Amino acid sequence: MKSIAEDETLSTNDYRASIFAGKLKELMVISYVVLGNNVVTGRFIEKRYRMPIQAWSSLYVVREFPGIRAKEIREVIPRPQNTISRAVSLLEARGYLRQEVSETDGREKCLYVTPAGAKLVDELVEISRLRQEEWLAPLTPEERKMFYQLSRKIAEGQKLLTTEVMSVD
Amino acid sequence: MKSIAEDETLSTNDYRASIFAGKLKELMVISYVVLGNNVVTGRFIEKRYRMPIQAWSSLYVVREFPGIRAKEIREVIPRPQNTISRAVSLLEARGYLRQEVSETDGREKCLYVTPAGAKLVDELVEISRLRQEEWLAPLTPEERKMFYQLSRKIAEGQKLLTTEVMSVD
DNA sequence: GGAAGATTGATCCATCTGGATTGATCTGGC
DNA sequence: GCCAGATCAATCCAGATGGATCAATCTTCC
């Protein structure tokens, strides 16, 4: 715990270095990375395409899996179901996606991208891939592969989306 | 690109495995990790402490750096200045934080945690540390160290908070 | 076959977010 | 010293978020 009153030369890099070395270092560093990137990406998608980032990510998933159910998007994009519902609704209104009632369950909607939606996805995947290169640039190819594998391990862990320590009872 | 219509046995793990192996694999995996954790953490902090997650993270930073200026919090938590301003306002109203006009610049506010705020931070740091152990559990200690170092490299890269490819003009 | 409980996506509602704006203060040039 | 431009935090406002609710549909048990 450092007091600014005594040391006016503490720079913002020192703030970060200090927090990034603390008890919650992994959380603070990786959150900084994702939050920081989302600021850039969210602003871009909002301004260029007039849609929230959740709409883009939902459309990307539907493009990859034509016929996917709305509820299934949640398994890839951990957002509440009504957030997905609204994204789907906006994408449909914009002509990027269409819904069909499932043949096997009258409650479910099967989602498909339209040609306009497919075009949009292709465009955004390419820009996002370039953007990904940008923030991954500090890593060597070997480091990048390692980062991916470790992130993958965490993503597939049993306790990412559930918790025993943060109970609300 | 896989069609569900032809293969009804595709499971949600396959959706994830497929997206996590695509062109945007690093982005999708690490976003899933941070978003997934934030769902758990945000819900807990909202319910237990009745505050948005940005208030907790802001308070944590003020606790680490007594006297820090509001604008400086942004360097650690990449959120807009008005988000920080509102978090600070809420924390002050709750008695967790106090503001003093800076002696060197009448526009600036120097922030300090109150005893109640310090107690809250200690409590939340401990719970968050345990939570961190939860989602990091799939990694060995060596892997965890590697993940931290690679994340740190990305966080300190020149292109995390800026972009050349996602221009809006 | 009927009823209770579960599931699905749309909708509601309170709150949060983020860009823009504002008033107060500061800085640097003339 | 004065003024134009920059900076800081509070506030505004339109839109997004997330838990709760709802109607329609499905599943399972008796």
From TrEMBL, chains A, B:
Family annotation (InterPro entries): HTH_MarR-typ, MarR/SlyA-like, Tscrpt_reg_MarR-type_CS, WH-like_DNA-bd_sf, WH_DNA-bd_sf
Keyword DNA-binding (UniProt): yes
Source species, domain of life: Bacteria
Keyword GTP-binding: no
GO biological process terms, semicolon-separated: response to stress
SUPFAM superfamilies membership: Winged helix' DNA-binding domain
GO MF: DNA binding; DNA-binding transcription factor activity
Keywords carried by this UniProt record: DNA-binding, Transcription, Transcription regulation
Domain HTH marR-type per the UniProt entry, residue ranges: 21-156
Pfam families: MarR_2
Database matches in PANTHER family: TRANSCRIPTIONAL REGULATOR, TRANSCRIPTIONAL REGULATOR, MARR FAMILY
Entry protein name: HTH marR-type domain-containing protein
Lineage: Bacteria, Pseudomonadati, Pseudomonadota, Alphaproteobacteria, Hyphomicrobiales
